[in-house]
């Protein structure tokens, strides 16, 4: 009869059972962590503009992946479990389209583009209003840059008649605003030779003499303009006078702005037009999530990150968060602004100021 070896097998069986318990516990913990992890996409713009670097800084600030060091120990101060990604696009028009399709949870957009999309006006006339569009914050002012070679002899917008002009790529807010500007100064599409280039290639083509001018809308300094200015002397054409005034009257989201002297090498202070850069989101996103994202956006560590990461980052301040909002606030964002006193609770209940942008122009 074979000796009974059950006693010998017991320690091994016990160890195996204990290992299985540990494995199951580890898998359960891993699954729990995976369930807590959320992805959040931010549509930005081209790599040669301002949206992409600013969007990347914001994505970094609001992210807080599982296992990150706590905020109070020098770690992430973002939303626990959130991984935000800044995605390069052609700009505001594409961003709004992708948000409508559900491809992005949020995006950066020019105020005028967001307003028109929300109301089904302007370039969106004839399309269903994007009523689900909501705001997290106004970020900074974007300047309209109209760049020419310093030796071009072109002194004004009217001087672009018959010239080769990059008006921005299809799907960009730059294209929409460039057409508005040119029309205000009396130039129809047939009066110039349009090119639809990204900012970087537009700068390259200007340097090489293959185009005469290019538009880019962005918070200055814009990388594509800086790169062109490092290779050849450039000038910025002024956008002022009665034409600019008429444009401001017709499009209330446009405001006057001066691009400071030597923002680009040897370029004097130049008057132009600007429009707010705003962070928009879909209304179907969880209120708690957007509250956490808004709080993370205005955390002191985020300000340090923005200030160090981009010249326009220092302009992103809480006091301007509700300035010129183009669409209603998301309830989660409104909750944060009520907590910090930017929205008066009684006034909000009476006037709806936490949901309706007070400065929105009428159709």
List keywords for this structure.
38% helix; globular; 10 strands; ten-stranded mixed β-sheet; 12 helices; D-Maltodextrin-Binding Protein, domain 2; alpha/beta; 363 residues
Provide a short characterization of the protein structure.
With 363 residues, the protein is an alpha/beta fold. The protein is built from 12 helices and 10 strands.
What's the structural domain tally? 1
- Rounded to an integer, what's the Rg over CA atoms? 26 Å
Count of helical stretches: 12
Within CATH, the superfamily carries the name Periplasmic binding protein-like II
Tell me what the structure shows.
The chain is α/β, with parallel strands linked by helices and 363 residues long. It has a single domain, classed as D-Maltodextrin-Binding Protein, domain 2 (3-Layer(aba) Sandwich), CATH 3.40.190.10. The chain is built from twelve helices and ten strands. The protein has helices spanning 6-36, 51-62, 92-101, 111-119, 173-184, 199-207, 223-229, 241-250, 287-297, 300-309, 331-339, 345-351; strands at 38-43, 82-87, 106-110, 133-149, 164-166, 193-195, 213-218, 234-236, 255-259, 270-282. Strands 1, 2, 3, 4, 5, 6, 7, 8, 9 and 10 form a ten-stranded mixed sheet that branches. The N and C termini lie far apart (98 Å). The relative contact order is 0.15.
Chain-wise SSE layout:
Elements: H1 6-36, E1 38-43, H2 51-62, E2 82-87, H3 92-101, E3 106-110, H4 111-119, E4 133-149, E5 164-166, H5 173-184, E6 193-195, H6 199-207, E7 213-218, H7 223-229, E8 234-236, H8 241-250, E9 255-259, E10 270-282, H9 287-297, H10 300-309, H11 331-339, H12 345-351
């Amino acid at each position: 009869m074979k000796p009974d070896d059950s006693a010998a097998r017991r320690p091994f069986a016990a160890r195996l059972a204990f290992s299985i318990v540990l494995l199951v516990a580890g898998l359960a913990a891993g699954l729990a962590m995976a369930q807590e992890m959320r992805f959040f996409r931010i549509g930005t713009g081209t790599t040669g503009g301002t949206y992409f670097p600013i969007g990347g800084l914001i994505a970094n600030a609001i992210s807080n992946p599982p296992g990150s060091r706590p905020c109070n120990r020098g770690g992430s101060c973002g939303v626990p479990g959130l991984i935000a990604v800044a995605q390069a696009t052609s700009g505001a028009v594409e961003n709004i389209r992708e948000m409508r399709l559900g491809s992005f949870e949020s995006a950066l957009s020019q105020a005028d583009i967001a307003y028109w999309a929300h109301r089904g006006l302007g370039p969106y006339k004839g399309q269903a209003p994007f009523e689900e569009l909501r705001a997290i914050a106004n970020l900074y002012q974007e300047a309209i840059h109209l760049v020419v070679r310093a030796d071009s002899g072109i002194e004004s917008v009217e001087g672009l008649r018959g010239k080769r002009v990059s008006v921005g790529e299809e799907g960009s807010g730059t294209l929409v605003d460039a057409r508005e500007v040119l029309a205000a100064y009396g130039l129809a599409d047939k009066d110039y030779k349009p090119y639809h280039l990204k900012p970087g290639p537009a700068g390259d083509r200007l340097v090489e003499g293959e185009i005469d001018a290019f538009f880019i809308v962005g918070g200055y300094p814009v990388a594509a303009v800086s790169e062109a200015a490092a290779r050849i002397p450039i000038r910025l054409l002024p956008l002022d006078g009665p034409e600019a005034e008429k444009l401001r009257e017709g499009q209330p989201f446009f405001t006057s702005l001066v691009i400071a002297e030597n923002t680009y090498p040897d370029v004097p202070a130049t008057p132009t037009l600007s429009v707010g850069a705003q962070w928009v989101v879909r209304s179907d996103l969880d209120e708690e999530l957007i509250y956490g994202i808004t709080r993370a956006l205005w955390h002191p560590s985020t300000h340090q990150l923005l200030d160090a990461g981009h010249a326009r980052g220092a302009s992103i301040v809480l006091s301007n968060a509700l300035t010129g909002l183009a669409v209603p606030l998301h309830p989660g964002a409104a909750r944060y602004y009520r907590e910090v006193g930017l929205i008066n609770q009684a006034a909000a209940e009476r006037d709806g100021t936490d949901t309706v942008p007070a400065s929105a122009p009428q159709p």
